[in-house]
Write a structure and sequence with these properties.
By secondary structure, the chain is mainly α. The protein has helices at residues 10-34, 45-73, 79-111, 119-143, 149-187, 195-219.
Length: 238
């Protein structure tokens, strides 16, 4: 049977917004101040790589977080408007995520580094692929051409549940990415207890807290008594 969490989504959406802003600021400080800046073309190939964590965190994870929470942030919003916003934010997240992955490949290719040898890269390709499949399924089923009402009702809990699984997978991939990059930098002489190392570790912790806030916001009921049509809390089977 369905078990209520006993909390409302609203405070967790507020926390998620604050954590997202903090994570975005921290990754920008890391890549611009400590790592030298961002570029799609540069003699210093590290500047190309720097685009990768910025777009994957701000473009992929944070925009994806906002897309997940849109029904809870604006519970009184017209359903069609909320659904379109949800769809567009996820689409932008996929595009920016793809550009971020391209920058990682470009950095590797320009620097003579092998591709797809780490668990981080494997999970990253898997995550964005599943994200794309999830988006296409949602578009076809809930937007255009749209499935029959009974099919939509039956598919919705699975769409939401699988979406959260993909979201958690992106978070895990990001954590592995932070760990992998810091391992490389520290093995090259970066101070393990220096300001850059601490900044990256705290950024990774903020991303974990952001993910937790988004997941709770997604499964908790909105502030209104009646949930927005088509996006009720995910029931916990007990």
């Amino acid at each position: 049977m369905a078990v209520a969490l006993g909390v409302k989504a609203t405070p967790f959406t507020y926390a998620a917004h604050a954590l997202a802003a903090a994570a975005a600021a921290m990754v920008l400080v890391w890549c611009i101040h400590f790592r030298g800046g961002l570029a799609f073309e540069a003699a210093n190939k590290n500047l190309i790589f720097n685009v990768h964590p910025v777009l994957m965190l701000i473009g992929f994870i944070i925009l994806g977080s906002e897309a997940i929470m849109v029904y809870k942030v604006f519970p009184g919003l017209n359903h069609d408007t909320a659904k379109l916003t949800h769809l567009i934010l996820h689409a932008i997240a996929i595009v920016l995520g793809a550009v971020g992955i391209y920058c990682a490949f470009k950095f590797h290719n320009d620097s003579g580094i092998a591709n797809l040898y780490s668990l981080h890269s494997w999970l990253g390709i898997g995550a964005i692929s599943l994200y794309g499949i999830q988006w296409i399924f949602g578009f076809v089923t809930f937007f255009f051409p749209g499935a029959a009402p009974d099919v939509r009702r039956g598919a919705l809990p699975w769409h939401a549940l699988f979406g959260l699984f993909v979201y958690v997978l992106t978070l895990a991939t990001a954590e592995l990415g932070f760990l992998e990059k810091m391992t490389f930098l520290q093995s090259s002489g970066l101070d393990k207890y220096g300001p850059e190392a601490l900044l990256v570790n705290f950024t990774a912790l903020v991303v974990v807290l952001l993910g937790a806030a988004v997941v709770v916001a997604a499964v908790a009921p909105a502030a209104t008594v009646e949930e927005p049509e088509g996006y009720a809390p995910i029931p916990v089977i007990g």
